[in-house]
Amino acid sequence: MRVIIVFLFFFFSGSTVFSQDAKLNKTNLVAGLSAPEMLHFGITHRLANTNLLGINAGIGPSSGSAWTSISLEHRLYLGKNDERTMQKTWFLRQGTTFFPSANSSQHFTFNFTGGKDLTFKKAGNGITIDAGVFYLPESESSSIILVRSLNLWPALRFELYFSL
């Protein structure tokens, strides 16, 4: 609970203390399709040219019912700045996804992906594509698992973002 409170404090603070440049404070609405977050909607906030925090809620089908999720993420941006936006576009994403209706051992996943932000003509809008793995405890019996002994699953995400 403390982690969530600290995360939300930094997420909504909007203080330029955490940014390298005041104009880089960007808050975006996001909508996407991914594993493990499923169909999701949320909000992200770029704290600096190299850091972004996000939170989203998702929903997906599950044998006659709806499977819900809540995700928190951090992106570490790397590489050179894009000439048009003057921001880095390549990133490593770390996050966790909470599934309220899952078995107790499978309430959380831990996600690690790499990807890129692709901007549209309007620089604050675009699409994010990233791929990697996520860890789901006690999931050795699945047929699509990547590394059975480590419970690693493939993670892939397509996400549209729109600046506020």
Domain module count = 1
Output mean pLDDT: 83
What is the CA-based Rg, rounded?
16 Å
Counting DSSP H or I runs of 4 or more residues, the number of helices is 1
Helix/strand structural class: mainly beta
Note the gap between the termini.
Answer: 28 Å
Question: Could you please describe the fold and organization of this structure?
Answer:
- The protein is mostly beta strands and 164 residues long.
- 7% of the residues lie in helices and 58% in strands.
- Strands 1-2-3-4-5-6-7-8 form an 8-stranded antiparallel beta barrel.
- A hairpin with a 6-residue loop joins strand 6 (108-119) and strand 7.
Give a quick set of tags describing it.
164 residues, mainly beta, Porin, eight-stranded antiparallel barrel, 8 strands, disordered N terminus
Quick structural gist:
Helices cover 7% and strands 58% of the residues. It is mainly β and 164 residues long. The two termini are 28 Å apart.
